[in-house]
Amino acid sequence: MLRLRRVTRVHGYGAAEVHALRGVDLDVAMGELVAVMGPSGSGKSTLLHLAGGLDTPTAGTVHVGRDDVGALDAKGRARLRRRHVGYVFQDLNLVPALTALENVMLPLELDGLSARRARSQATAALAEVGTDDLADRFPDDMSGGQAQRVAIARALVGPRRLVLADEPTGALDSVTGEAVMRVLRARVDAGAAGLLVTHDARHAAWADRIVFLRDGLVVDSTGADPGPDHLLSGAVRA
Amino acid sequence: MSGRLARWRGRWRVALRHGARDARRHKGRTTLVATMVALPVLVGTFATTALWSVQESPERRVETELGPRLQAATDYAQPGVQQSPDHQGTMTGEPVSVPFADAEAAVGAALPAGDSLVRELRRSVVVHGPGLERSTTALQTDLGDPDVAAAFALVTGRTPRAGEAALSAAVADELGVAVGDVVAVEPDGDVRDDTQAGDLGEVTISGLLARSQPGAAGLLYPADGPLRPPAAVGDAEFSPTAVAVGWFVSGDAPVTWDDVLRLNEAGATVVSRAVLLDPPPDEAVPLFGGAPQTDPAELVRTWGPVGAVVAVALLEAVLLIGPAFAVGARRSARSLALVAANGGTARSLRAMVLGTGVVIGVGASVLGVLLGVAGAGALLVVLDQSLRGLRFLTVPWLQVLGILVVGVLLATAAAWLPARGASRADVVAVLAGRRGETAHRRWPAVAGAAVAVAGFAGAVAAGLAGRPLLLAGGVVVGELGLVLAGGGIVALLGRVAGRLPLAWRFALRDAARHRSRTAPAVAAVLVACAGASGGLVYSASQALHDYRSQSVMAAPGTLLVAPADVGAPDAPTSLEQAQVDAVRALVAEVAPAAGDLRTITVLRAPAEGPVTTTVFTEPAAGVSTGFSSGPGAVFGPVVDDGSLVDVLGIPDADAARAALHAGRAVVAPADLWPDGSAHLTVSRWDREASAEVGTARTFDLPAVAVGDPAGPTALALPLVPQELVATADAPTAVGGLLASPTTSLSTAQVETLQAALDERFGTDDWGSCRVCAGVAEAPGRGDEWFALLLIVGGAGLLALAAAWIATALAATESRPDLATLAAVGAAPGTRKRVVAAQAGTVAVVGAVIGTVSGIALGAAFVLYERHRYDLVDLTWSVAVPWPWLGATVVVLPVLAVTAAWLVTRSRLVLSRRLAD
Known about the structure:
The structure holds 2 protein chains of 2 kinds.
Chain A: E1 2-11, E2 18-28, E3 33-37, H1 44-51, E4 59-64, E5 67-68, H2 74-83, E6 85-88, H3 100-110, H4 115-128, H5 144-155, E7 162-166, H6 174-189, E8 193-197, H7 201-204, E9 209-214, E10 217-221, H8 234-237
Parallel strand pairs in A: 3-8, 3-9, 6-7, 7-8
Antiparallel strand pairs in A: 1-2, 1-4, 4-5, 9-10
Chain B: H1 3-25, H2 27-54, H3 58-66, E1 72-76, E2 82-83, E3 90-91, E4 98-99, H4 100-109, E5 115-128, E6 133-141, H5 146-151, E7 154-157, E8 164-168, H6 169-175, E9 182-187, E10 202-209, E11 219-221, E12 232-233, E13 244-251, H7 257-266, E14 268-272, H8 273-277, H9 296-331, H10 333-341, H11 346-384, H12 397-423, H13 427-431, H14 443-465, H15 468-495, H16 502-513, H17 515-548, E15 551-552, E16 559-563, H18 577-590, E17 598-602, E18 604-608, E19 611-618, E20 623-624, E21 638-639, H19 653-661, E22 665-667, E23 677-686, E24 691-705, E25 713-714, E26 719-720, H20 722-728, E27 733-739, H21 747-761, E28 771-775, H22 784-813, H23 815-823, H24 829-866, E29 872-873, H25 882-903
Parallel strand pairs in B: 6-11, 8-10, 15-25, 20-29, 21-26, 22-24
Antiparallel strand pairs in B: 1-13, 1-14, 2-3, 4-12, 5-6, 5-9, 5-13, 7-10, 8-11, 9-10, 16-27, 16-28, 17-27, 18-19, 19-23, 23-24
Helix pairs in contact in B: 1-11, 2-9, 2-11, 2-12, 9-12, 9-15, 9-17, 9-22, 10-11, 11-12, 14-15, 14-24, 15-16, 15-17, 15-24, 16-17, 16-24, 17-22, 17-24, 18-21, 22-24, 22-25, 24-25
């Protein structure tokens, strides 16, 4: 579903030049949840932005499905996000002026789907994350966990199958965070692909694979189905 | 449905939904924006509706003048009369007397088949109530004709029968009479037709007439009422008290324009239902003689500058509202970034911000329209003193719809720049909690400066050339250019801020970095100040124009008595000795304190019957100056040895006296020829034949010019010394008398003297004096300070509002930076200084540039007035009220800085370095 090959991203130029990513390779398959860990400034968020087409690589290629993100123009990348990629951020994920249902309908409506069909699909997406009772609530009237679950519903509504989550539990207490991770895991198990950026090893443990970034380089990764016992590799310990 | 249209619909569905919710969530901001949008819509709707409601529309004229069924109403004028289709313009030839019966027969014969005439007679009458009397128009007609009866709407009671009359409800209210009461009626004014001699008897009121009636009837008699038709019609000397005759046209056949032309030939002018509702083309109207009735150039001349002012006002509104949307867009930055992350394109984000503008614009405009219509209705009721006024409420829906659309566009345009900025924000930066402003481009500032220079230069050039459309265009383009250049100017100031104190350096750099929010606020202050200083320049120039347009009759307080230039064949043009003595006696009797009366000798010959002999100067320069005169004015040339210079109020008195002593004439600047002479012409004029008699004779005199070429004009000029009069063999006569009272005469004394003069010398047909008395006054200078204060006050409030909005926004956005300053040890007062400097930055930049550009703006309009017509109007010249402009430039920023200083708290609220 997601394939990055020798992806490099350089911000600024001259003396202010910063290499956020340096030749990163990464694959995320359907039904797979990959966690990305690393210290601040290691390039995690840049990786996520490139994966969703919010940013474009300086070098290398990013493929979402069959689409080469770097070859798409701004409209093409926006279409990619409407149809294939959903984001879940740490907090303030929802548009405060729209209800939960309208937030989930957002990408569908922007893509030209009729209001009736968008509502129907959004209602189904809310039901899949167990928040269909929140449909008419505004974000200000929801708890953090509820809002994150609605955000996951939006990330995977309609035809979208790749969810990019940037510290989705960072603003939540541990119990609520666990609940959100459970929902995310369940959606991936149902066939979606997921890329999760986190600092928290407990949440990374929900992933099938963990990739470690430092200074824009992949310095280590665990194999498939690592389990909590294999969370940290020797390279990281060193 | 799929594809682009579906996405467009989806985009706007989301945008409008978000806009509606956003407007509801931020009620304060919404109220502010809605007020600014609703206000111009309200004013526009109110003005349009009120104008349409008080305007005589064809439909209303048909309703009031013809009732529900009458085909036409006619007035007898004379055979061959010409008229406009709406009956507002008529032209008659030489009076022709026609026996009434013949006239009636001729008009009847010209009617379309199937229609019939119903005679109506009208005259002015006085109705006597208990202790009160009231003038009104009595109309007598056959109320047995149902079409005629239906045309006279009654408020109460019934149609009058023999011995009865219906009285206007308004007149009845004033007289305190009601249905069933008896009132006495008598003819009003001189009775010139002996058929109406004596009073018209008493009459019982059968009903009360509604406000508007055919023939403006205030008293309605049935056919057997007391009015009698005159024996002959068509040659009656105009008199409001004579009996007027006319006919209503009753029947089924419409009176077409061809019928109207036939009726004109027969002597009647016509108000026709069919013609009013469907007028003929101008070329089918003989009265117009093929000349177009609407001059597009004149329309442009009249409305061009008005359009420019409205456009600049709307621009100001857009700029004032803009920062409010900028605040909203900034606070929604995170939401917009989320929409982008979910597949929203730049268009989607633009639509999200514009959606708020559209929602508020529609709501506020609808509210403005409703309030405007309600206000116009209330005005009509107040004017009419009863709810019947609402009957005439005419809402021009098409125009009102246009105003509503302008209101929506106003809000949408105000949201456009913030929307554009939001759509170009760096989504990744915003999601990461940083500000997402993209780099600013330089070309708008350069292009804006070029456009501003070109626009204002064009406006001045158009003003000089008297081209109003170009003038208006230049003004609008110039202001738009300055608005466009606003960001660049702020950026430029940011670069040179290095040597300023911390607060001002911070404020200028902050303004330069965030110029997308600073520029609209600067532009709003700029436009307000430009409008104010333009208005100040125009207002001061107009005050000067008004002053120059007046004339000097004599030194203030001087009593003048002189023949009026009435033009009647038997009116005196000068005073003979007996008349002079008579005037002296009258003045001595009525105003003994006036002192000795001196005669004024003028170059003029006593009238010989209808033939007058006058002497006038040939102007050397084709320029236009002001001219106005009051009663008693004595017009030059005056014969003087220098002793009248002071009492006649001649400017440059010493130079004038010296010239007269040296044997030279004293003239106005426009009358002095390049060779130092004045050209005088002696002309004889037959007032009866309206033709010159013989050939005019011209003679030249050595002369000196005194006074300002632009005015005020001294009416007594030119002054001619006696020796030159003798040399030129010019006729002389007494042109009037003057006295210099030690105490000024009271109005009552002057009126009493005038009454005595009227008694002695008579009046013309209209009651105007033939020999008039007046007291000279100094040319007045209007109290312009109030108008100037209004202009400065209004613009100042707008500018302060703009500065306040921008400062509040800047202060909010600068919190993280101020927190950093506090963290490194800045004193608590630093925050107050920074915010005050931010206000000062916006106010100073806007006020200085706006005031300077406003001077050009005002000058362009003044130059337009000066060159509007073929002759240059010297009374218009650019007057710059420097103290007021200086006050604008200094006081406004001081107020802005002080207000910001006072309302800002020193304590800083801790802030996360995250976008809202």
